[in-house]
Amino acid sequence: EAEVAQSPRYKITEKSQAVAFWCDPISGHATLYWYRQILGQGPELLVQFQDESVVDDSQLPKDRFSAERLKGVDSTLKIQPAELGDSAMYLCASSSMTGGNFVGTEAFFGQGTRLTVV
Amino acid sequence: GIQVEQSPPDLILQEGANSTLRCNFSDSVNNLQWFHQNPWGQLINLFYIPSGTKQNGRLSATTVATERYSLLYISSSQTTDSGVYFCAVNHAGNMLTFGGGTRLMVKP
User: Fold this and answer.
1) Secondary structure (DSSP) of B14-52
2) Residue B90 touches partner A, C-beta closer than 8 Å
3) Which one, of A8, A81, A77, lies nearest residue A36 by Cα?
4) What is the rounded distance in angstroms from the CA atom of residue B98 to the CA atom of residue B86?
5) What's the N-to-C CA distance of chain B in angstroms?
6) Residue of A32, A96, A109 to mutate, testing the B interface (most B Cβ within 10 Å of its Cβ)
7) Using CA atoms in the order B103, B20, B59, A29, what is the torsion angle rounded to 10 degrees?
8) For chain A: N or C, fewer Cβ within 10 A?
9) What's the rounded Cα separation, in Å, for the pair B4 and B42?
């Protein structure tokens, strides 16, 4: 069964260091999402890609976060420098599109990367 | 932007009891999903339900898109049903927005 792959599963990093997360969506899924989930809250969208283009990054803290999906397949999310408040679960999801009317279909999530900044 | 509200925020049940979780949304949506977040943090797909009613074992869901709400029913609850349940709506531009979740604890 096709799955969204994420790595690493867990990451501990020191404050001010750089950290990167990787996501490989389900084959053929044009839409890729990165979410951040703070303990006890619902996931919040950081960035949404349609193929290699950014559709929405309005909630991405661009002074320290960057995201890319260069060939429209897998994606990397980077934080530099990491801060204590970045400790959270980072979730990646993907979905396909129906016809040409820009309506998404069912989204599937990877296992997530749990980041701890010390 | 669209608002998604889930209720109740917390729910404690005795094993074998039934429950109803609600998801209200503030604008028209293309589709709606229900997820169960397991103890390791992964979001497990329960239902993809833009409208109507679907059933899967002890779980069922109903979405009334015209009235902007969805319900998730859990019957004969088991301890393994414990966890957090999220609804998420797909709206303009294929955006996917989550509610705050319902934290369910089923006691033996």
Assistant:
1) ETT--EEEEEEESS--SEEEEEEE-TTSPEEEEEE-SSE
2) yes
3) A77
4) 7
5) 41
6) A109
7) -60
8) N
9) 20
Amino acid at B58: R
Six-digit token pair at B39?
């103890």
Q: Which of B40, B45, B99 sits opposite A106 (nearest CB)?
A: B45
Residue B64 CA, chain-centre distance (Å), reads: 13
Q: What is the pLDDT of residues A84-94, one digit of tens each?
A: 999 999 999 99
Determine which of A42-56, A89-103, B14-28 has the lowest per-residue pLDDT on average: A89-103
Inter-chain touch B31–A104, beta carbons under 8 Å: yes
* Cβ–Cβ below 8 Å for A42 and B98: yes
Q: Does the beta carbon of A110 lie under 8 angstroms from any beta carbon of chain B?
A: yes
**Token code pair at residue B77:** 């609850």
Check whether the bond before B9 is cis (ω within 30° of 0): no
Q: How far apart are CA A60 and CA A92, in angstroms?
A: 14
What confidence tens digit (pLDDT) does each residue in A92-118 have? 999 987 655 566 789 999 999 999 999
Angle at B49 between CA B32 and CA B84, to 5 degrees: 60
